[in-house]
Amino acid sequence: MIEPRPGMLLVASPELLDPNFAEAVVLLLDSDEDGALGVVLNHPSPVLVADVLDQWRDVVSDPDVVFRGGPVSPDGALGLARPADPAAPPVGYREVIGGMGMGVVDLDTPVELLEGGLAALRIFVGYAGWGPGQLDAEVAEGSWYVVPGVPADAFADDPDDLRRDVLRRQPGELAWAVNRPVDPTLN
Fold first, then answer.
1. Selection from 123, 103, 153 nearest residue 44 by Cα
2. pLDDT digits (tens, 9 = 90+) for 98-107
3. CATH number, domain containing residue 171
4. Which residue range(s) make up the domain with 15?
5. pTM beyond 0.90
6. Helices vs. strands in the chain: H and E counts, helices first
7. Tens digit of pLDDT for each residue in 125-152?
8. Into how many domains does the chain fold?
9. DSSP 3-state assignment of 27?
């Protein structure tokens, strides 16, 4: 079993039927003995960023919608970003995933201070969270596949294909999981 840690992806197995996470790909932003936190990368909402955070409309990456990051704190928003120059990140940016050059943007930062400083930005409402030992238990029971992430995953052009794309690039039999039904005995 691969240990869940920041930068890893949690890919929902077919057995995970919770509507918040069915077919989800979650990017872990934090994971330690106190629990874990991440955002669902492939659940775009129909809500345009311009409709709720107009000042960010010209800064977000396509698709320019708000993503449903998870069921925890659905009234809060989080900006996940990649700086244009990792050696000189803009004001309001804080790296959370070393080696992947990704971090969070303080959405209270004046947009003018970030313009030209970000290569990519997505805005998520809510997040996914697990208490101490909870995520490890869910991984052990087979609800999640834990796989390495790449920076492009967080800003995929077509989030609807992200789960399939992530699973297909995995080595061995895990790549087959993309076509696995909920109950393989019925196959």
1. 123
2. 878 899 999 9
3. 3.40.1740.10
4. 8-186
5. yes
6. 3, 10
7. 999 999 999 999 999 999 999 999 998 9
8. 1
9. strand
